[in-house]
Please model this.
Amino acid sequence: MNKGPLLFLGIFLAVALSWTGIVLVNQIQYGSLTPIIDNETGTAFPQVMSGQAKQGQLVYQSLGCVYCHSQQVRRPGFGADDLRGWGDRQSVARDYVQQGRVFLGTMRTGPDLMNVGARPLNAEWHLKHLLDPQITSPGSLMPPFPFLFETRKIVGQPSPKALQGLPPAHTPPPGYELVPTPRAEALVAYLMSLKHEYDYPEAKPVAVGGAK
Amino acid sequence: MSSPDTSPAAVEPGAPEKTAERALLSAIDASTRGPVFLFLVTAVLWLLGGTVFALVASIKLHNPPFLAQQEWLSFGVIRTAHLNSMIFGWATNAGFAVTIWLMARLSRVRLQHLGILYVAGAVWNAGVALGIFGILRGDSTSVEWLEIPPYATPILFVAYALIGVWGVVNFRYRQRGHVYVTQWYLLAALFWFPWIYSAAQIMLIFVPARGTVQSLVNWWFAHNVLGLWFTPIGVGAIYYFIPKVLGRPIHSYYLSILGFWSLAFFYNWAGVHHLIGGPVPAWAISAGVVASLLMVIPVVVIGINHHMTMKGGFSQLRYSPTLRFMFFGGVNYTLVSLLGSAMAVRSFNEIVHFTHFTVAHAHHGLYAFFTMVMFGSIYYMMPRLTLREWPSAKLISVHFWFTAAGVTLYVVGLSIGGLVQGWEMIATTKGADGELALKVPLFMQVVRDTVPYLVSRSLSGMLITVGHIAFAVNFGWMMLRPRAIGATAPTLFHTPPAMPLEHRA
Amino acid sequence: MSAPNEKDPRIDQPGASDDSLQDVHGALLREKPEPGEGAVPIPLLLLGLIGGLVFFSGIYLGRYSGNFDPLVYNEEAGAAGAAAAGPSAAPDPITVGKRLFAQNCATCHQATGQGLPGVYPPLAGSEWATGNPEAVGRILLHGLSGPVDVHGATYNGAMPSFGPLGSNWKDDRIAAVLTYVRQEWGNKAAPITTEQIAAIRAATASRNKAWTAAELEEFRK
Model:
């Protein structure tokens, strides 16, 4: 292997092949996947995210939530995602076509969030959980996000957004209130928008031996 | 950069041929001094910075309230700063330094166009610094291994392209007909990285693909940073330093060829195994699984080639720092790669995917293999560049044992933790009614059970930190101290008994 | 300059008289020659193993390709294999309820059923959980908001609806999780049947917001 040009040709081919095979072919095969319009209701699925939820996705991105939370459900029978209550069906490529950036994630230090919006958790729970996960989930390894909240003096009427029913350690001093910043509200709106329950044709489980 | 009296012409006529060769190597080494120092010094600084980020992130994971008030210290941010400091600051800068030095030596030509390298080095480090600053500010893209914000990535690309161009130009000037195996790997790495980096940047950040095509691009890139950039440099360095220190040829040229081309054609398909079970087409995942299994071929071939070259020279591990670090790195290259192939098997992946096992694996590859090989290379290069010996054998010893023990504890502890986590996450039993039920129904229980292993990670991180400090002190001392007169004996772990001085390295 | 070394016979000294040259080459002098390459052929056994691996890979890729269809996610698809269907026994409400509880309720009420002091009320020994199915069934169906007294402590939160205003659970799931709660942690209340929940759902069909504790007082008797 003393011929420079031949060496280069091989080196070039090696990476060109994998780029074509993994990136280009898939882009051609399903890179222009579109939402599906439901026949009964006329609604397009997956639904478009609200503006606030999109803002929240940026907060999610900037705080690096993806490093501990995945957003993908494995099919029933492979892993136990369904039994954990993370989703009843396999996540499919169409679930993600309305999201600007896809946060599949590779770690589950915390639970999967693909369908967190479908869980019985309201905005108040999410806000308290963000303020300090120990309030709602003792033993959690999630960091608290105090900088997403603001303690401020009550001027006139108390804010309707102020957090109520906090444990003593987090209760603001008398005359003060703890309110979520717009970033916290956007993040919660994003989390509550994460719901992928529509059964696309390709998401239906295939009858297979072994799989449930 | 080279001074006239080190040129081959200065050798007395009639000197043995070997002497002329040595004089040429000396002149070449001298010509690389400036750029290699630039990359090495910045690499060591990034290594220290990255280590601090790593410790903070590790402690936060089992002690969440630690440093929680500031957004830039939040886990998701500081962890990302750690990764990027290590990848683009430490490992890539060290890789550049080793590549430049080896390429010049193996091409038998004094370094050409130093200006390109100085500019590239300065621009690269400015780009990395801006990128890390951006991440700490909250501008991370949160695309794994590509977190550096889009305002810094074009800078990195320009710097890298300059170095790639330099590599090709330097290769064209080569004075030696035979192209040694190390050069194949280095050339390939210099060519591959700009391609995968620019393709990934364009398809993910600047003109993003839709949906999970992004994830395929992401993992094609992220796996190839290891496979097509760090691995070729690491393996190429081992191919040079083991035979060099032992003074014997590489076992088999044919195995070298087979190992190189099988790595080149299989490794870059393997990244899809990070998406097993995910929302990407089954065939693409199967292709990734197959490529991961086929990676056994280059790994075994390279392993045999290195092992057979080492055979009979194991006693030298007692003396030579370079050889010891290289050996540790080489063995771990084989281990981590075989483990990686196993992790791509669907039924094993089902357990360890999404767990700390993957984190252990990443450190196994990038630290126990690549970083240790870089340390070994630096121990060899520095005396030839500074014309001084390493000031302290003790510090080298501390460096080796603390990093080796640290990373071993890290990988073993976190791998066990990952297995426990993965098993608890998916283990099921059939209930009385025939319905499947989880053995550990509460996710919080799974989380709690990983804590001891996360603590062991912090402990191992402290060991590694001690090693890094020893290394940095020795490195700085060597750079800064006045030139020692007449010290031409190498700094070894032990003095070999009655060994011809010539045979030391 | 390098006096000790000049006397060292172990050193191969080129142009030894030239001090500066000697010094520059210090580290190089002891270097071994640049590495060469041996020409040992590749062992046949290794080639055989490689052939086998490539063969296996081809088979694997063919078998698990999902016909190269971009919308097939299960690599087993297309494989012959009987779906393991068949009538299963009626699920045990305690088993089902336990799973549902771990997935949906333990986040707030905790796995111990103790809740979190001051934030989420306990279910263990709770007079609401073990009381009249009419009240607790309504809470599950439509949610509960505003202050509520449990064990003499007041909680002010919002319990979400699992029925028509929220997660849209069917009657059997609601019955199962309630039955589990009423018989766990030392609770010993009677099970709640799917029919009881269906009856409450029918009676409250027009309800469009969460209940308050005061509204539910009449159903607790």
User: Anything to note?
Assistant: Chain C touches chain B through 68 residues (CB under 8 Å). Confidence is low (pLDDT under 50) at residues 1-24, 79-88 of chain C. Residues 44-63 of chain C form the longest helix (20 residues). Residues 106 and 193 of chain C are 22 Å apart (CA to CA).
